Amino acid sequence: MLTVTTVNVNGIRAAAKKGFVEWLAGTSADVICLQEVRAEPEQIPENVREPEGWHTVHAPAAAKGRAGVSLYTRREPTRVQVGFGSAEFDGSGRYVEIDLPGVTVASLYLPSGEVGTDRQDEKIRFMGEFLVYLAGLRERAAAGGREVLVCGDWNIAHQEADLKNWRGNRKNSGFLPEEREWLTKVFEETGYVDVVRGLHPDVEGPYSWWSYRGRAFDNDTGWRIDYQVATAGLAKVAAKAWVERAAVHEERWSDHAPVTVAYEL
């Protein structure tokens, strides 16, 4: 069994003070993919930066206090790669991948975007480059008899079932037609599988992000934007997927909840 968790921590130093440390101590995951770490490694408390029993890889952004992705593994990786060969984005703290026996695992923080701004243009450029990389990654893995798992905050709700208020968000970044079409290409043209949706095909959600504004969490007015995206062989052995949603608002240590999948290897 390989259990993998992905979560956007919304600032690891803040999360560590609100419950992340306790969650980490109690998790049964073999691999944890973190996004929006927003700290240099030396700024992260030691018990979080290098906790006992874990091998860690931290890829901070060149821009201080922004983005940042990390990977925690019980087994030491045989290879580590920061970035995906992009002149623009490799220093942005948005992608890191490692090799474990038989599988390449990556933590992704795709730009969030904002319609009508440079941020949306950046997101579109990232998507264009990353799609090409994903296709090549799958081909290289297949040639070597390996599977691929890209986990993270993809910042796109793919289907209407992936966000509560889809009608009100059709013109907003995260649910734009061109973004959704791009994600369809990831699944239909490059041969990857949305693992959680595959295990929960006929439900709304399960959501993984709720705004801190209003009563979004209490009313479950959420978005499903945190995905585990796998090559077909790995997706076939996914046995169970769940969102580790806090029982009450006060117990949240991020505006995202961990998304966990158990794979029967």
Automatic annotation (TrEMBL):
Q: What class of enzyme is it?
A: hydrolase
What does the record give as cofactor?
Answer: Mg(2+); Mn(2+)
- Swiss-Prot/TrEMBL keywords: Hydrolase, Magnesium, Manganese, Metal-binding
Residues forming the Endonuclease/exonuclease/phosphatase domain are 6-256
Cofactor: binding details: Probably binds two magnesium or manganese ions per subunit.
Q: Which positions, given as ranges, span the membrane?
A: none
Q: Which PANTHER family does the UniProt record give?
A: EXODEOXYRIBONUCLEASE III
Q: What is this protein called?
A: Exodeoxyribonuclease III
In the UniProt record, the gene name given for this protein reads xth
